[in-house]
UniProtKB/TrEMBL annotation:
Residue ranges the record marks as coiled coil: none
Phylogenetic classification of the source organism: Bacteria, Bacillati, Actinomycetota, Actinomycetes, Propionibacteriales
Pfam families: Ribonuc_L-PSP (PF01042)
SUPFAM superfamilies: YjgF-like
Gene3D superfamilies, per the entry: RutC-like
The protein, known as: RidA family protein
Superkingdom, taxonomy of origin: Bacteria
Family matches, as InterPro entries: RutC-like_sf, YjgF/YER057c/UK114
Amino acid sequence: MKRDSVPSGSPYEQAIGFRRAVRLGGSIAVSGTAPVWPDGHVDPDPRAQARRCWEIAIEALAGLGGTKADVIRTRQYVVDAADADAVGRVHGEVFGDVLPASTMVVVAGLLDPRWKVEVELDAVVD
């Protein structure tokens, strides 16, 4: 099977040894995606962060030939349970017509203290 990947542009990518997304055959996995804008800005609003995360993740998915309709599983990591509703609503806006299996987990922290949410997804393409 052919293996392909999309880089993240993260300064950690080479040192840690990962890619934003990897495709092997018809399976695509998008790694932990944080809410960072190209200029390094992080909006403090959890809804804006969730939207940005999904925008980046879906763009990586598209870079490997996938679409939102191919998504079969999502994971959302939040640092504050109080943000779960806002983050979950964004997930519903993005995936309400797809309805992937999904998990949301409250975690003690993420790599950058400005991040309130980080996401992952898995997809299968024909």
